[in-house]
Write a structure and sequence with these properties.
Chain lengths: ~250, ~250
DNA sequence: GTTAACTGTGCAAGATCGTGCAACAACAGG
DNA sequence: CCTGTTGTTGCACGATCTTGCACAGTTAAC
């Protein structure tokens, strides 16, 4: 029995029965449990299954990479994107962050506005190229598996040589106390670098972000020049003095 | 027993049983395991099988949904992509050019092969990220409006700092006299830079490219290490001495 | 808290791999 | 017919990989 056949069999079992018990498979295939455990470990390392005590289970759909969530935009994100589009000045150079809100923005870019778009997100880049006449610059780097955005040293090097008028920043948390936060460390670094090379930074604040806090800090609220809230967001934070001051900042 | 007969038999076994064990076949055919191993190695180098410890397995078919969507009769680009996938060695770093053939390759990348993928195409990058476990590096730069591929100074600078094992090159023309050609000047420059940073360059030659000539030269045929033709391409060029020598180059 | 099952690691035996080498056959040119 | 060349084949050998076992640490269950 070839090693690859064993792994195929394991993946097959995983798909058909939703679980694999190391002991059972070892007995069924006539190999030692050690080999099965080794196989499961390797499959888990490749992200093809999840190791659990006694065997393994398939990768849950919820953990699927963000790429598959592409295209789903809540109404709130659409409204924020539309509002942000109003801030795009003809002839300017803008940076569009990765994320569903900026992806929505990329699809709404005005025609004939002589825009230059810079983005670290391949999805946003393609949307901007297809949906507008803008020149599109793609920031290179290693793509994060979770949010499909370029980051790392290569990206920082490229960003250091760029300059833009407005940076439309997407984050996962916007909180009066904790400031702007995101779920990936590398992503936070890239966002800061983009902000540093832009004359203005504007945060896109769809409803579910307001009041939320993620793991890694990106910027202080004082460092941004504006926040675009969802005009229909009824959150008390948006209506508060905090929200108002940010909106006008 | 002639060498070609042995290889035919191996391919037959591969197709019928889904695997080949070197030891078994050697005993069955009455030749040494070395010869079988040599055959399998050559078949693997041609992309006709995948070498594994103990024997070999067939090249994995394209993803099931893909097949069902497009029917059994995949087009020339799909067949070339499939054949090229067989040349991707586990653990290696590959460059995937922009184009529909390389896009098909990105969708077929083997799981759990510990690959690193470098590409100047956002569409290829997203496909690779979505369909495999590979690390994906995106080459930045200005996106050409025609083929959505990064190019220009930024791209060249980024490419200069990369290195890869194999570059899967897509062009629009492959001609014995004119060599490899493409329709955009900037694109040709990018392709050359990628080839210069890769240990090997392999050209993807779907049927409609063979014998065609485009405006801008990319490389001489002598500069590439292999050409993947469509196995079902009946063009006289492919069967000619020219096609054969390239195929084996 | 105790017990049994499970896990990762180190290790040694065996299988397999790639390479270099020599023997041999097939072939072209003189 | 002879000879040099080329290509194939089997063998030897060191390197690498896989596998099962032992053992100690960890986890789940009772």
């Amino acid at each position: 029995m070839l090693g690859v056949q064993r792994k195929d069999h394991l993946l097959d079992l995983l798909a058909r029965e939703g679980r694999v018990v190391a002991k059972e498979v070892a007995a069924a295939l006539g190999v030692s449990e050690d080999s099965i455990r080794r196989d499961l470990r390797e499959l888990a390392d490749s992200g093809l299954c999840i190791r659990v005590y006694g065997g393994a289970v398939p990768v849950p759909a919820a953990d699927a990479p963000e790429v598959s969530r592409r295209g789903i935009a809540t109404d709130s994100k659409e409204r924020v994107a539309r509002a942000a589009i109003g801030l795009v000045r003809p002839g300017s150079t803008i940076v569009l962050d990765a994320g569903t809100t900026t992806l929505a923005m990329a699809r709404m870019l005005p025609h004939g506005a002589d825009l230059t778009v810079i983005t670290p997100s391949p999805a946003v880049a393609l949307a901007a190229l297809e949906g507008s006449q803008a020149r599109v610059f793609l920031v290179g780097g290693e793509l994060s598996r979770h949010s499909a955005v370029a980051g790392g040293g290569l990206a920082l090097e490229a960003i250091a040589h760029l300059a833009a008028d407005v940076f439309f920043l997407g984050v996962t948390g916007i909180d009066p106390g904790q400031g702007l936060t995101t779920g990936e460390l590398d992503d936070a670094v890239t966002k800061r670098a983009l902000a540093a090379r832009s004359a203005e930074t504007i945060v896109l604040a769809s409803a579910e972000k307001v009041g939320a806090v993620s793991r890694f800090p990106v910027l202080d609220l004082a460092a941004v020049h504006g926040v675009v809230f969802d005009p229909e967001d009824a959150s008390p934070l948006v209506g508060s003095e905090w929200g108002r001051s940010l909106r006008l900042a």
